[in-house]
Amino acid sequence: MKLDFKKLSITLLLFCSVNIIYAQVNSAVEVPKPALDAIKGAPSQPKAYSEIITSKAVTDKGMFNVHKVGEKYFYEIPDSLLKRHILVVNRVSRTQAGGQGGALSNPGDPIDEKVIMFEKGPNNKIFIRTVSHSQAVKDSTSSMFTAVSKSNIFPISAAFDIKAFSKDSTGSIIDFTDFINGDNEILYLSSGDKSSAKLGALQADKSYVTGVTSFPINIEVTAVKTFAKTPSPGGGGSGGGSFTVELNSSMVLLPKVPMQGRYSDNRTGYFTIGYTDYDLNPQGVEQVSLIKRFRLEPKKEDIERYKRGELVEPAKPIIFYIDPATPEKWIPYLIQGVNDWQGVFEKAGFKNAIFGKRAPTKEENPEWSLLDARHSAIVYKASTTANASGPSIADPRSGEIIESHVNWFHNVMSLVRNWYMIQAGPLDARARKMLFDDELMGELIRFVSSHEVGHTLGLRHNFGSSSTVPVDSLRSKAWVEANGHTPSIMDYARFNYVAQPEDNITTAGIFPRIGIYDEWAINWGYRRFYQFDGPEQEKAFINSWIIESTKDPRLQFGEGEFYRNDPRNTAEQIGDDPIKGSIYGIMNLKRVVSNLIEWTTVPNENYQSLNTMYNEVVTQFKRYNGHVAARIAGVLMNPKSVEQPGAVFEAETRTRQKEAIMHLNEYVFKTPVWILNPEIFEKTGAIGLKIIESIQEPVLENILKRGKLDRLVQAEIYAGNRDYYPLIEFLDDIKRGIWGELNRREPIDIYRRQLQQIHMSKLNNILNPGQAKAPTSIMDVLDAAFSQAHPDYVDVTSTVRAHVKSLKSDISKAIKGTNDKKTKIHLIEMERRLQNILK
Ligand SMILES: [Zn+2]
Q1: Burial 36-58 (b: 16+ CB within 10 A, else e)
Q2: Crossing angle for the helix pair 750-767 and 796-817, to the nearest 10 degrees
Q3: How does DSSP classify residue 322?
Q4: Distance 108 CA to ligand 1 centre (A)
Q5: Residue 17 Cα, ligand 1 centroid: separation in angstroms?
Q6: Which helix (H) or strand (E) segment is 144 a member of?
Q7: What is the distance in A from the centroid of ligand 1 to the CA of 492?
Q8: Chain segment 220-267, per-residue pLDDT in tens
Q9: CA–CA distance, 336 with 333 (Å, rounded to integer)
Q10: Buried b (16+ CB within 10 A) or exposed e, 210-227
């Protein structure tokens, strides 16, 4: 299955990184002369400087000086920056209230990036070329260079008359007003962005520029743009009208000399940039993927000391400024979350490599701005979004992270509060109220800050990390307080829900923190090897380094975002045994339920908090069930290079899958009455039957997914796996849990009648697939891609049909054997539906 990752923008909820994987861009390719000749317009006649930049001009000095004269914006392009690569990043800064912008609904997220360059053309013109091809040819003397140049030119996306030359003749002045007021493929929204957001033409009368600011390495343009809404096909009600957004376009000057890159490796978890290289492989093309990282280098005078293995300070440390809009009391914790990475960088040979800092006040430094691309920052957003994200922009030639803004949404605090009360309430008395003390909330903020900063350093989620820790260790006070409950802060491991109150574990063993995986990952990504001239030269060395290091399973990377069949790499799960872990988790949830009314009581308030937190309990329980269900049809993935022995892909064993079904039968399909609390229901209006449905239905949906059934069948021939779980046995094991009353001749209660109906509807979906549900999230799209419906060549339909027939015959027998009226009515109906299903 091939996914187009280039087009995939991933915004995972609950602490995620936003990362757009871009088409790669590189320099070198010259433009064939005929193409230039074709674009000769009328020669322009530059005027005297003072005629264009009059005494009324307001000048903003920076990368390009920007002169505002009346309503006009003039850019002064220095000759020294001609042909330099400039990264353009377009973002939504504010979106129309009420949403409907699709991909344009998340303020702060980049919507696209491209590389451009300014160039002098004939007849006193300045061109903007889009350097958008995805080929890298580093050696301009090679024959491959000529071949690639022949078949590719950089399109000229805009042409400007030179209005005047700089006072000292070292630059050209162009009128940029129409360009920033209008609609084009470089700034703002590309035609692709607009069509995916169902936007039509720009409405110029409802659009205006709000600001143009120039900084030493970037220029920021902010504009309010109004577009016509494209009427929806079929004339549905929501079409027509217009859509207004505020957009921000940054032009960021890329370094003259690209940083030395490092090839990505699927045994470590870094964000990447990628491009096609024509030089590497003499007999074809090579897809190159480089990790994203900051340019951390020793000072020139320290290089020899660094090579000897001494700890040195980097030439340019990584600094995260805290947005001045951040509430004062949280600033120290956000800073601490950044500084927690300092010790990690020492593993890579750098001391004092990373700092959190308060942004300077206007008095301290009037020039300082969050918009200055030299500044990375944690930006505080007064938003109801319960999330945080850590996007960064990187040099597409090398992976160098140029700047990074962690978006910190105010409401992320309610998210961590909810988790902490539900997962750690039984362990930490401070978690047993709705409004946490500042100290506890501060500690929670610190861990979220560390996680987000980890993303901005280049690290991806390592969902597999926490599954390298034995469940028993999670309950061992000494062990878990010393080592933490997960080796990586980049996991979604949240809190140690396995620990029991009698274990007396303190927050050192409950909170996530930066761990040994993170130390290894930063060392791997950031250590410089001066003996090698480039990523290709260091390849063999890096490979053996990884092989050696990842012999410790705690240093392994567990891919859980793009490869989703490995049950070890599930989000929100901790410990090496999800079954045992869930049982401990449930023991804690029972304690939460019985105390929840007290913990959620807020004087003078109603029961809204109780309702919210009870739903959180249900959600947490559903997570545990999902962890166990992930074993069904699981295929473990252990990425290896050819030097490493053993299988890369390995199907889950029959025993482990059977254990999972036995657990689900016992803890999910046998009605989990512990979660039904009449006292809570009478205050919130929740309905027990609905709650149980909301718990059981997703589990059945999950384990009876067509993709899983296909994989169960395929496991029969999986290399080396003789201990596979036959589909018929799997279906019978579920039946034993869900329809146990039939053989035992017992009455069937209302919860179980509901469960049996759900089960039957899932079987029906397999035999009579209807319209597939439209995907509602990026995860659904991935799911659909990975478990694409295959033509039914082998076994699934026939086995399920045989199973349904045997269920029907069990039911027919049970109808005769039961005297319970409700049971009898239910079974007669079930028998009738089964007949229909078999038709
Ligand atoms: Zn994240």
Answers
A1: eeeeeeeebebeebeebbeeebe
A2: 150
A3: E
A4: 16
A5: 5
A6: helix 143-151
A7: 7
A8: 999 998 988 876 554 444 456 888 888 889 999 999 999 999 999 999
A9: 5
A10: eebebbebbbbbbbebbb
